Amino acid sequence: MNQTMYQSGKNRFARTPILIVILIVSLIFPSNLSAREYAAPEDNFISTGALVLIVGYFGWNVYRSLVKYTPYQVLPEIETALNEIQFIATKNEIKHLKSLRNSAECEVFMQEFWKRRDPTPQTALNEFKIQHESRIKFCNDNYSTGLKNGASTDMGRVYILYGAPFNIFRDEIDTSSNAFNKFSPGVYPVEIWMYDFPSVTSGLPTIFSNVNYGGTSFVFMDLQKTGEYTQVYSNKPNEYIDNRVYR
User: Does the pLDDT value for residue 206 go beyond 90?
Assistant: First the structure.
């Protein structure tokens, strides 16, 4: 954020000399007098309007450069909440959470958020919240990489949404003989997660034909060979499919 503000400030100062030159030229070297005498009134009006806009824009940039300007920054509490509910919240809930401006508003929002999802509101425990937090902890403990928390990875998202698969198939796929990764062919680790709830389509694409399963599947590959598995296929409706799977 600081780097962005610094760069923005540099851009404003970089524009300032250009605006100064334009302003000086406009004042010292006005249009030819005889031409101005015979110029249509609307031409003079346009020239004057353009000069006013230039002066106004110049003044606004000087004001923003000299006056301390601090853009809104997301509070740590709100950022933490966003990371916690990013996969289970609705678009309107995310939008509302981002619009909050203090910790108290964030706390109230989260209380209402979990209350709406409590399957047993008459009890003291919120089973949904407990399960969700347990899944996040599991993902962070098992799927984290050096660059990303496990709960923010593709595997983490699927685990948080659907829970633990009843079976996991691990293998390696040699992409040298197909076009899946033509820019970097080689052997890539793959994991196929199997769930027992039904899906619209059965079976898997040819590239994963060594696995024969008719339920819901999620396929992940370590395409960067960094330990983070990216989702490339699922037969669950509205889930992401890498078009290279069918290529």
Answer: no
Q: How far apart are CA 209 and CA 46, in angstroms?
A: 70
Distance CA(128)–CA(120), nearest Å, equals 9
Query: Would you place residue 10 in the very low, low, confident or very high pLDDT band (cuts 50, 70, 90)?
Result: very low
Mean pLDDT score of the chain, rounded to an integer? 79
Q: What distances in angstroms separate CA 67 from CA 19, 54, 61, one per listed residue?
A: 19, 20, 10
Q: How confident is the model at residue 54 (pLDDT cuts 50, 70, 90)?
A: confident
* CA distance linking residue 191 with residue 21, whole number of Å: 62
Task: For residue 239, give the amino acid letter.
Answer: E
Positive/negative CA dihedral, 41, 43, 46, 52: negative
Calpha distance 162→157 (Å, rounded)? 9
Phi/psi of residue 37, nearest 5 degrees: -60, -35
Q: What is the pLDDT of residues 149-170, one digit of tens each?
A: 999 999 999 999 999 999 999 9
- What's the CA gap between 144 and 83, in Å, rounded? 14
- Domain ranges (residues) in the chain: 2-66, 76-143, 165-245
